[in-house]
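Forwarding the complex inputs:
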Amino acid sequence: MTLRHLTSINDLSVSEMEKIFLHAQAYLEELGDVQSPFRIARSTEGCRGSILATLFYEPSTRTRLSFESAMSRLGGGVISSADPKSSSAVKGESLADTIRIVSGYADLIALRHPREGAAKLAAEYASVPVINGGDGAHEHPTQTLCDLFTIRREKGALAGLNIAVLGDLKAGRTVHSLVYALARFGATIMTFPAGGLGLPDSVDWRLRNELACERLTGNDLGPEIAVGAIYQPRRPAAARRPTVDVLYVTRFQKERASDGVGEYPVVDSAFLSAMALREALVMHPLPRVDELDAALDTNPRAAYFRQASYGVPIRMALIRQFLGYQSEQTGTPDSRESVLQQSDLVCANRNCISRDAVEAQSAPGKFVVVAERRPRCFYCEDETIDAC
Amino acid sequence: MTLRHLTSINDLSVSEMEKIFLHAQAYLEELGDVQSPFRIARSTEGCRGSILATLFYEPSTRTRLSFESAMSRLGGGVISSADPKSSSAVKGESLADTIRIVSGYADLIALRHPREGAAKLAAEYASVPVINGGDGAHEHPTQTLCDLFTIRREKGALAGLNIAVLGDLKAGRTVHSLVYALARFGATIMTFPAGGLGLPDSVDWRLRNELACERLTGNDLGPEIAVGAIYQPRRPAAARRPTVDVLYVTRFQKERASDGVGEYPVVDSAFLSAMALREALVMHPLPRVDELDAALDTNPRAAYFRQASYGVPIRMALIRQFLGYQSEQTGTPDSRESVLQQSDLVCANRNCISRDAVEAQSAPGKFVVVAERRPRCFYCEDETIDAC
Amino acid sequence: MTLRHLTSINDLSVSEMEKIFLHAQAYLEELGDVQSPFRIARSTEGCRGSILATLFYEPSTRTRLSFESAMSRLGGGVISSADPKSSSAVKGESLADTIRIVSGYADLIALRHPREGAAKLAAEYASVPVINGGDGAHEHPTQTLCDLFTIRREKGALAGLNIAVLGDLKAGRTVHSLVYALARFGATIMTFPAGGLGLPDSVDWRLRNELACERLTGNDLGPEIAVGAIYQPRRPAAARRPTVDVLYVTRFQKERASDGVGEYPVVDSAFLSAMALREALVMHPLPRVDELDAALDTNPRAAYFRQASYGVPIRMALIRQFLGYQSEQTGTPDSRESVLQQSDLVCANRNCISRDAVEAQSAPGKFVVVAERRPRCFYCEDETIDAC
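Prediction (whole assembly, three chains):
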């Protein structure tokens, strides 16, 4: 029996995700249509007596409140630390110590942290499941579950679809979790990066080497659209179509950028009139700033508010799964890897949790060796490594 | 069936308020006397399975905690965002977007915001009822329900009473909601403004033109007291008496003032010894700073702690009403108005939510046309309008 | 019938503490072993319908979340104000007013405050029990209950043990509550103060004059360890042994220090190899910074994470006791004292709640006269008094 965590979307097998979608669908029906006023709110009592801790070291409305709403709808209790300045972090406490302690107060921990790899570190020290609610620019797997659930509801399936991701693909953690999952479900990924903000090398490498994608060059979507790259399953379900099924827009992650960005695309009705986008469903993890025109909100193709509304049933299903089924450990993509602990190497990503002065003792240089590749950081999954 | 909100005290009919008072009285008896130690706390399970979201963009102790206590006493759940710096607002998200999202997480939203008209804007985008917990200097209707409930308990009725409001009547949002309600219940309002801080023109206009008050000049309360104006029902219940039944004291709203205030009245036992105030009940929405002497606290006429203690039963009754009876839409004073949307006009109140750069797209110039008067802002209800 | 509060560990009799330990043990078994994953979380419904308010004017993770988890496990509700900047304190409201109001919203208040004596002040104005979650450098009695419970579980008893307290004994509030309790349970206290940070005179005086301790000089623990003082029960249970049973480490309270500290001891395996410490259990109230080497974490003598894990069952027992048994007032060490209110004297401790400008009116000069001694401050229990 091993304790299960959700630090990366790759911690879940495809069949586990399918199970979560099935349960989320049931909760959605039980709650009533969350889009309509006068819905009758009903809660299951399935988690009465259990406690969720939400530890948020970065601002959040959506993720924290939807986790808390989900736990409340399940009849459970919530304890929350939403402001880092009100917590013991200001006294210099390490994340490892905080997590060990909070493990004694709650049955499940949802964590958001500004450093990449923080969820992985937390999982090492927790005695209850840790769910990553966003760790720096690394991953945001629970958002991805909402995204996938939305696409399946609106498009019927994931395999064979053309999904375009647009905007800040470098620091956008929701994009990283999403593309891994899309690859595993057999979708084709098209990138429309804002200037200089393409997928990190580590994500590109994993798509091609671990998730069986072929990177295509060339652009058959027409001259109106600046495609970065196309990642296609090695054995695609169908012949390629020069149209986009889903356009996934993201905001510029200014809080993670070292400097400003040049031109950032704005998705409005003009943008969507390009031939290849004529049928595209528009999604966005929100919050949006200026990159998505509010005039689109009433367009039936605008799926982003529906997407957000699935946050509660998805997290209800996820909480149930992690509270009740920890023992069903199944193979994950990482299961064949060996972990290497080496004190003379450090991760080159300065925002990795292992580079934080307070956390250093709890998070020593630790690397995953994958095939013939040079090791990648166990925490942030970056592949650039420095000597100490 | 229309979704009901409580953005202004004028959204409730007199009979709806009476119903809330009746239910609050029942809850008060059920909870035991909240003034006494050793009370037996009991909760009804009337709202089990429902969730209240408290979104507070301004500091609060009383309003937020009493809402949350009320929902907890009703057996329901609470999700809370109490610190704007920990929410998605810091990422530049508009209130409209936040409200649409949180509508999917909760069954009722209590909102506090520093901008006038924010609750009105939120109500436009919510798919669940929005209750205004204070919007800038505009209104604070749930405080008014506590105020009215207190006066009725202590004085037996509202019609025919002389109620004096003292202090910062310009920015004091509790005063604005209170005077509208007092006018509708048939009380006479006397204003004792601190220097330069009288009722806004828009409130004065509505009292005289929409709420059937006559503004009297002259002062029959004696030379000791600086009366600003007297608003009396057109058909008063009784002849005017030169005494004050209730003195409603408010603090200087320094967070909304562009500059300091000159002399601010201090209510102490000397002040209360004026002939016209000899029998006056002393009320205050709290928090107080220096304008109300703590030496009065033990005086039986000091009703402010009793007034505060009704916060929970009143909000229990309100939550029940808005969760359960959304469909009983009844006429409100605004129901005969027409709304005019005009993009070449803007509200002249720079603190109106429609003047906020982030909110501009969600809150376009929108005005209510009342009778032969020039239009007033749909959001903040101010009447000064500029061309763009 | 008197309302009971827990402002100081001395508010509880030894038999009341024994009762709390007994109930905590039962809750611990009911919850399952909180150290193990896959525990089955279960809650009692013993406090359903009751509400706990956590008012924290200083940062906290452990104390606040363990209180909230305890109340949630008991089936009760929680309302929380964890960020002073989001509360009415920013509008200038006094603690006395806040407490009076919140007494109407909750059935029990847990308070943390940066000023010494704040809990005592709160207790004077509350109509529900107030539990001190730490008041400045004064006391932290609920931490002490966890500490005592840990020692009893690991060592079987308290009487006759040698307990060493190390570090910042001056500002470390957990130490003050702990040494009072240890003296009452018949343990011997050894102090290892960091340079200049010994026990305050007032704590030393009470140990010797009120809690029947003899202060010994000399050091029989060997030259490796710098003992400050030894406090031994007047009629010790057994002959003194030159060994330490428990080493209680504390961090430097930098937030309360006027200037930095010189050398601060670091407890690591070298430190623990001193002959007198060879068997010592290592405890720490946490958070730790650098004074306790993380390399000790896996040492079976390291009891600090177990100690932290008792926070929930101890607070469950405490909440039950204070919600249900307020009427069982028993004699406390202070019961023979007389209280003197004298407006021409002020407490000399500038951080005492009675010296706060906003609180001054609610907390006038008030002193406790003990035997032939000069009076000590009723609030912060300091003995230095100035004329106004």
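The CA atoms of residues 275 and 349 of chain C lie 40 Å apart.
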